[in-house]
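Annotated sample (chain length 430).
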Amino acid sequence: MSETLHYQSGFGNEFATEAVAGALPQGRNSPQRAPHGLYAELLSGTAFTAPRALNRRTWMYRRQPSVVSGAYAPYAQPLWTSGAAGGVDTPPDPLRWQPFPIPDAPLDFVDGVRTVVANGDVQAQSGVAALVYTANRSMSGRAFVNADGEMLFVPQQGRLQLTTELGRLDIAPGEVALLPRGLAFRVGLPDGPSRGYVCENYGAFFRLPELGPIGSNGLANARDFLAPVAAFEEAHGPVEVIRKFGGRLWRNTQPATPFNVVAWHGNLAPQKYDTARFMTIGTVSFDHPDPSIFTVLTSPSDTAGTANADFVIFPPRWMVGEDTFRPPWYHRNVMSEFMGLVYGQYDAKPEGFKPGGASLHNSMVPHGPDAEAFERASTATLAPHKLDHTLAFMFESRWRFVPTAFAMSGGALDANYASCWNGLRDRFRG
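Output written by the structure step:
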């Protein structure tokens, strides 16, 4: 694939791109003979009968169709589990993890993924998992396909080169990438040892949230999402393909690369987004607004207004509320929150929450600023103040997250997390 990357802009757009002139057939999707001797293949991300506005599919014109493959056998990766069934019973405590270490043993992305928390059921196509990856070498001679869900990549240390059937996306910390369910990809690590987070979404596909009273502008704008242009590799083989299917990993050996798509058109495509382009909305009077105003993408559930999953970011922003406790208030939510920190400092946890770590506050588990953050925010001079060089995020879900055995006993769990609130003494002066 070419090292000069080009992108197309827009979220959910109908794209059309070809790496060789004339490779896209005109006027029909599957002519009797596709141009240049290519094969036509359809990737459907929704049911055929989904409403037009929600239908996602892409036509690919490739050198060999994806049916040219061998039989699959189990692939051992016990730390990539799926759904609530892959977790362990835990009490209703707030949980926090120190930065997950990158091991010395050689691991690529597939072998370096660890499920931290998950809910739902891949067979029922409901729920979401929060994963971390800690890898130190690029995938070589292999590709990965996730048939269970789409994958949202949030790199924290090191850039990622994501080679997909539809072209390549390069992302750095501060950017994210969304890869559709069922699309083959390969992960390269140009900066060596790398760490980050992945949201594996088993439910309805991520989309931009409705803006409601915000109006026609704000939050993430569709034009700031970038899709790749067509690119293909020369045939070579054999290639190992790892496929996640039904909550388990499987492998086979295929005679040629799956990255052989010469042209494609459709609205189901991998996309990247720079979080620095997020148009943050906030109060200009008083009170701390709900975190829903920071939603980048949402996966709806069958209950209106209650998401299967939301992807929320807390980027640099101005704080100007008067007579206002500016960090998040103490709260218990019906939604469950898995948080990570890409860089900088999170204003509600100035010391204990580190880049590359994570926290979990499940449904109705109380949480909020630690004692230090409370004291500082309660006595600060309320001049306009900018939170700068910070990027935290949240995978939020209507379902309770269940931690895995790795999360609870893998060595990164902060056993003293709850002590951060011990200094919140009774201040009542009645």
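Annotation: The two ends are 71 Å apart (CA to CA).
Annotation: DSSP finds three helices and 28 strands in the chain.
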